[in-house]
Amino acid sequence: MNLRLRMIATGERAMPRQREPISRDGSAPCYAERDVFFDGAFVRSRFYRRDALLPGDAVVGPAMITEYTSATALPPGCRAEVDGLGNLVIDVTKEIDA
Question: Which of 7, 15, 57, 95 is close enough to 53 for a disulfide, judged by CB 3.0 to 4.6 Å?
């Protein structure tokens, strides 16, 4: 026996929850410092838990932002900031004084 059903229904539009970013330095989610290979040399880098970064947190490279299924490498001179929706916005265009 087979049953096939096709249905069209209206529903509420999903709106992601946006939080107001608060300026922070992102140091709270830092859990380790290790050497990471960037541009031909090992560089001392901070490691951050992705799920602990909050809107407004900013991380300056060299750094690694880790989570269960992936990692984001942030080379020296780059900056990442968490926006109101929890996205990482990475700036690789300017030099950052650390």
Answer: 57
Residue 8 resides in a domain: no
Would residue 18 count as lying in a domain?
Answer: no
Task: Tell me the three state secondary structure of residue 52.
Answer: helix
Number of domains within the chain:
1
Q: Which amino acid is it at 9?
A: A
Tell me the two tokens of residue 40.
């031909």
| pLDDT tens digits, 60-75 | 989 999 999 999 999 9
For residue 26, give the nearest of 57, 66, 63, 3 by alpha carbon.
57
Instruction: Judge whether 7 lies within some domain.
Output: no
Q: Calculate what percentage of the chain has a pLDDT beyond 90.
A: 50
State the Cα–Cα distance between residues 72 and 70, nearest whole angstrom: 7
pLDDT tens digit string along 38-62? Answer: 989 999 999 999 999 989 899 998 9
Does 72 map to a domain? yes
Spatial separation of the C-alpha atoms in residues 46 and 65, rounded to whole Å: 9
